[in-house]
N-terminal kinase-like protein (Panthera pardus), 806 residues
Amino acid sequence: MWFFARDPVRDFPFELSPDPPEGGPPGPWVLHRGRKKATGSPVSIFVYDVKPGAEEQTQVAKAAFKRLKTLRHPNILAYIDGLETDKCLHVVTEAVTPLGIYLKERAEAGGLKDLELSWGLHQIVKALSFLVNDCSLIHNNVCMAAVFVDRAGEWKLGGLDYMYSAQGNGGGPPQKGVPELEQYDPPELADGSGRAVREKWSADMWRLGCLIWEVFNGPLPRAAALRNPGKIPKSLVPHYCELVGANPKVRPNPARFLQNCRAPGGFMNNRFVETNLFLEEIQIKEPAEKQKFFQELSKSLDSFPEDFCRHKVLPQLLTAFEFGNAGAVVLTPLFKVGKFLNAEEYQQKIIPVVVKMFSSTDRAMRIRLLQQMEQFIQYLDEPTVNTQIFPHVVHGFLDTNPAIREQTVKSMLLLAPKLNEANLNVELMKHFARLQAKDEQGPIRCNTTVCLGKIGSYLSASTRHRVLTSAFSRATKDPFAPSRVAGVLGFAATHNLYSMNDCAHKILPVLCGLTVDPEKSVRDQAFKAIRSFLSKLESVSEDPTQLAEVEKDVHAASSPGMGGAAASWAGWAVTGVSSLTSKLIRAHPAAAPAETNVPQRPPPEGLPAPAPAVVPATSTTSGHWETQEEGTDTAEDSSVADRWDDEDWGSLEQEAESVLAQQEDWSTGGRASRAGQTSNLDPKSESDWSSWEAEGSWEQGWQEPSPPEPPPEGTRLASEYNWGGSEPSDKGDPFAAVSSRRETSAQPRPDSWGDDNWEGLETESRQGKAELARKKREERRREMEAKRAEKKAAKGPMKLGTRKLD
């Protein structure tokens, strides 16, 4: 019977790379790149080939194999696996590069920073301290060839071939027999007796001084070169001189050397070293310490090496979020580190965390995700956005915190290109309709209008026809002046999406009404838009053959390319209104709804006053939206552009800030001013705003009313004018039309657009009525119970043994 022996090298779970070896420490070992057969993960393999007649070298190699296998320390080369046969020794470690090769590669790329060198030397000294103070071992081979660098830039101490015990067990130090290594021996070993050595660490600290010299100055030519520090930093020179002193007794212990270098002003006293030390002990840190660390980490990441951020900081951030409940504080450093990853790594490491974060109910995490969405939106695919992210994001539209509602609106600019038909044309439009009509924050209503104009090109043709005209028309009736400007610019920016019929019958009548707006900025934009639409209509009138070319985008399918025209005008509200909203939130955190707090616009100039009582022009009441014409005229005239697509929103931001500056208090001043200006209320603005849809279809609502008779001399009552109703009012009270409209059963829903039937909103309205009826029944029940309790208390308690008298 034949027995066949299997080759252990072939069965070894690691294989050598076909690339040539990288070299290794002077001696018997040769360093190869390799990989694990099962996973393909990279490793380093040290190979020693047993040669006949080299028994001493073989014993040294086997001793190094044993030392590396038994010694475990973060700063010592990590052992993974090994193979020992009669022909060779294989030692598998983490993937590393010899320090000499690493420094040469980095020098070609610009060189290492002192931050990296300080942490690398810190690691080597810490490994020596572990060997000398904790294990009583002398390394006996500290030099450039014994140090390796992993993919994170961490320095590891290797070269354990000539290690021996400091207690004298197992004999003295082994003979090296390699001239390249013997030049690092201290001078006291020249006599060969070793009697001059006073401390067990003295020889290794001398060799550490040689290593420091080589790191900053290159290969050491001879021992006499140590007298000249060369490029060694000044903060390190005093401590370096202690290491290479002739007296071995004054050479410091590795632990004391670290302490000296970590002193204030020391070479190793910097933010990079402190960050690494904290990361090494992060598992035992208190939650408050972790929170503070992650908050300050993002400021320092820009100065840290890229490899360190990718391979050391990123795993700690992911672990802290997954298991440490770090929360929103890890987002900023996480996305900053994510910039160093390629698309595949980002998908594997960052995106799963982001998707999980969106499902969190933590408001701080939600708002930070929305604020930084532009950093990761490009890595999200459409199925992930529609099924795992958008359903959570839409809850922000209903949040009670205005900042979250605002950031949710802004995020739609980034999410809209990836939304499907149902989410974009139905769900999102429903929330936009509610925000534009009901939100109490004027800047949020303005942002909703601007965002709608920006994403209009992504909507389907039917949705564009149904929504855009109604939404922008509603914006022109908003009491917040920047919202009215946004409505005008929204019409202009999406001019290519309207038919000529719509421009003439729907858009121009709305814009003409704004030519008498009390705000000059609104009037200026209205006049510019009217001129633009009129020129478009006139060109088609002169040459009817242009109609097909002009209306080519009206019925076209949604196209991302059509949104480029709105980019310039949408920029202000997306990037600048956050400061405006934050001012409102900080100054008035408990503001009442806009319907009760925001006063109505004053009647346009040139129209008769609705009541004889006139407020003097010099008196300004808190909560009024009037602005000083002199200030706004100067600001607006300087920013007029020739084309509406290139409109500068900087002037609008100034306008919004000037409007806000004149409001002292939304919660109290609004009501006071509203009560004080009752006689100044404009019935037209109130009736048109509350009954935008009460006039039926577009064809019915835009019928030209019969021209009124020329007014007689003096002031006429507001009731004599037709403010948008089908019939003129006969009542003398200027508010009769308003109150009667509010009491009619045909009052429209303010959170719907145009003539379309929004089923979701009707359901919500019915639910609101049912909830109101339930509350009334509940109040009635409590009243009845209270009455019964009062009757029972009036009679008093009945006594036992007594008979109730008739």
